[in-house]
Amino acid sequence: MKKKLLIVFGVLIIGLLSWMGYSSIKKLDQKAESEKIVQRLSSFATKLKLENINTGQSTIFIYFNSDCHFCQWEMKEIQKNIEKFEDYQLMLASFEPKSEAIRFLNEHNLSAYYVEAHPDLLTSTIMGGVPQTFIYKNGELEKHFKGEVKIEAILQVLR
Amino acid sequence: MFNTNKLYLYIFLVLAASLLSYILQNHIIKENLIIEYFQEQMGYERILRMIETRKEWAWLNYLFLPIIYLIKFSLISFWILCGTILFGYKVTFKSIFKVIIGAEFVWLLPSLLLIIWFGIFDTNYSFNDIQYFAPLSLLSLFEATTIESWLIFPLKSLNLFEALYLLILALGIKKILKMDYDSALSFTLPVYGSALIVWILFITFLSINLGG
Fold it and tell me: CA nearest B93: which of B105, B111, B106, B79?
């Protein structure tokens, strides 16, 4: 009886491992695809179906969520230093509902920089959590920061 | 070691691991290393705040350590108990549990080695050096910063300490199953080896799917 139970347990473990293996391979493929897409602003914008993007202008794309306190800090810093971004294209995108994102950005006077993208497209193109900052120069990804990033570090990449 | 009282052994293990963790956190991972590591991306005040938060919550590590040990020992004991049933041996969960506690002392060696290495021999180290310090492991054959992050754990896990752990575990198994060492090793190798493979695959799965 015990041995039979063990065999069932063994089969369950093998089944679980197979599923984990399959999911991992799928996820790694997705990550590789995502890395390729974010390399160029044009492919990134096309994938996210973003409109009116100037792919030739130096761009800062920030992926955020209003609940995340690193994002809250980041937005506060951008608000304080907004004049330093005048020459650049600033884009702020979130996977939360538009109304939530706009309400949050309004608190920091940044709603003008909001870009709307479908949450599924965002989460399938940008791997990992928030915040993330993508910096493009001449349409090419120059630097990708994961987590909060100081303003000087962003500007240093753009100079 | 396998003859010592189980509770005393457990308490001694927790105290020893806590002491090593304390030395590591307070004397090896120095504040300037953390500042240096994060300063490219984060502001100085934000890093200091992060260090403060880390200090404030450090006690949680010590609080959870005995609980994590209990869970770990229970899982390995359960797996080995399944192995004994499969191979037709009779032994209690309690006796396996005690063997597992004894064998766990092997895992104090990598921390001890890290403290001795960076504390005495290589004192000019960076935060990255500590993160990827994995002597006698497959990871040490690669340049850790250049390989995919999800490969770090499996490569770090395949090391000679794991082999030493297996040999010591087999010693304990020999005692509780009352068999010769070769037979104990022939039992321990596939049973513990399979547990290790499942664990490595599980953690790798999590790092791929939850990591950025």
Answer: B79
In this structure, what token pair is assigned to residue B201? 């695959």
Residues of B in contact with A24 (CB under 8 A): 204-205, 208-209
CB neighbour class for B146 (10 Å; exposed up to 12, middle 13-18, buried from 19) = exposed
CA distances to A87, A156, B37, B40 from A152, rounded to whole Å, are 15, 6, 16, 9
Q: Which residues of chain B have pLDDT under 50?
A: none
Contact A9, B82 (CB under 8 A): yes
CB atoms A73 and B208 under 8 Å: no
The two tokens of residue A148 are 């909060």
Task: Give the residue extent of every domain in chain B.
Answer: 6-210
Instruction: Give the pLDDT confidence of B30-83 residue by residue, as tens digits.
Output: 999 999 999 999 999 999 999 999 999 999 999 999 999 999 999 999 999 999
The DSSP output letter for B89 is -
Residue A148's alpha-carbon distances to A35, B44, B71, in angstroms, are 20, 13, 34
Task: Summarize pLDDT for A83-100 with one digit per residue, the tens.
Answer: 999 999 999 999 999 999
Burial A93-109 (b: 16+ CB within 10 A, else e): bbbbeeeebbebbeebe
Report the distance separating Cα A106 and Cα B25, nearest Å: 41
Kindly determine whether residue B198 and residue A148, on different chains, have CB atoms separated by under 8 Å.
Answer: no
Task: Classify A55 as helix, strand or coil.
Answer: coil
Instruction: Starting at the earlier edge strand, list the strands of the sheet with A132-137.
Output: A89-94, A59-64, A132-137, A140-146
Q: Is A143 helix (H, G, I), strand (E, B) or coil?
A: strand
Structure tokens at B137: 């492991």
